[in-house]
Amino acid sequence: MEGSAAVTGLKPDYLLPSSRRSSPFLRSYTSSRSSFHRKHSSPFFYKFPKKLRLPSFNARQAVSPISKEEKEVPDLDWDNLGFAIVPTDYMYVMKSSHGGDFSNGELQRFGNIELSPSAGVLNYGQGLFEGLKAYRKEDGSILLFRPEENALRMRSGAERMCMPSPTVDQFVEAVKATVAANKRWVPPSGKGSLYIRPLLMGSGAVLGLAPSPEYTFLIYVSPVGNYFKEGIAPINLVIEHELHRATPGGTGGVKTIGNYAAVLKAQSAAKAKGYSDILYLDCVHKKYLEEVSSCNIFVVKGNVISTPAIKGTILPGITRKSIIDVARSLGYEVEERFVAVDELLEADEVFCTGTAVVVSPVGSVTYLGKRTSYGDGVGVVSQQLYSVLTRLQMGLIEDKMNWTVSLS
User: Which of 224, 284, 309, 371 could bridge across to 195 with cysteines, CB 3.0–4.6 Å?
Assistant: First the structure.
């Protein structure tokens, strides 16, 4: 394609003229991509090849053929990457069949998608997402971190939301294919990572409250830096004691899209007052820690690291799970239990974990107007765990856990 090439999108067959029903992907580039082109006018943004079709899940097939432009390194300031969307080359799309199983997917040009106004995800919030990262090693090769864990978590969430889900193999191979097709966007070693966002949504038309008749699995990627502007520097949290993120018996323990919209009101108010984020308490007793808006929380006292137990209202973070194993391997005692807010205020050190933040030390917590601070900088435990996990993710130390997956 030449110039501002057409990008594909999702559109139900019944909304298309009969002459075009064989090609459901019709939308043009998003305005954000157009503005990005204007800002970054280097030639690699033009002359894209046609979409690549995958007869099977094979990362090698996914990156062939590659145009001359797509061999070039993007003109980005790798030293100052933030956590924001950067339009890349390809996204991956796969749909469920009438029987609920997912057929082989395909890579499409990154861009807008089209949905029926009555799609299940738009009307009833039937949607899930995941987040994982790809890292470039010093030798230029690429590593994924525990993608099968994301696949398993999506399948668990899909069962709760009454949705079919790709198999673990389908999920992992689709992630590999997407990263391979966008490999030039993986930052240089030590400069950031390629954030991978798999989505699962009810894309079929439905009016009455019922499961969607069709589902779409989609993956897009973006190069990113630190989630919090502070980076590895300490963040400042405020405890929310009136609004709640999740309730017992609800969906707080799965990565459904509705969990995140519910935190925006409190989070926006906190950021307006200069805080980095919100820490939520349980909605029953209003005294036990749950999690930050998009991170798990850990409390350090002596050689003991405590974190709220997974009881259905807290997301079972993959970074959380990894940090627990790393901490235990380093000789720390880790407890998963109810953690009262009083323990937080008396802690030696506090930190958050998540795919986006990895490990983020907490500099202060404000509760009922009283601010509690933790040291003058990054705590020893936070720094140690951050160093070990990130070095493992980037292939700088031996992976004795067998957590990384090499993208050949």
Answer: 224
Predicted TM-score (pTM) of this structure? 0.82
Residues contacting residue 382 through CB under 8 Å, at least 6 positions apart: 349, 351, 359, 360, 361
d(C-alpha 12, C-alpha 395), whole Å? 43
Cis peptide before 65 (omega within 30 of 0): yes
> What angle is formed at CA 85 by the lines to CA 243 and CA 23, rounded to 5 degrees?
110
Question: Would you give the end-to-end CA distance of the chain in angstroms?
Answer: 28
Quick one: DSSP state of residue 55? S
Mean pLDDT rounded to a whole number for the chain? 85
Q: Which of 167, 190, 225 is the last residue of a domain?
A: 225
Residue 181 lies in a domain: yes
The tokens for 250 are 């609800």
Is 48 domain-assigned? no
- Active-site positions read 255
> Which secondary structure element, helix H or strand E, spans residue 178, and what is its range?
helix 168-181
CATH number, domain of 217, equals 3.30.470.10
Same domain for 299 and 194? no
Which structural domain, as residue segments, surrounds residue 343? 235-397
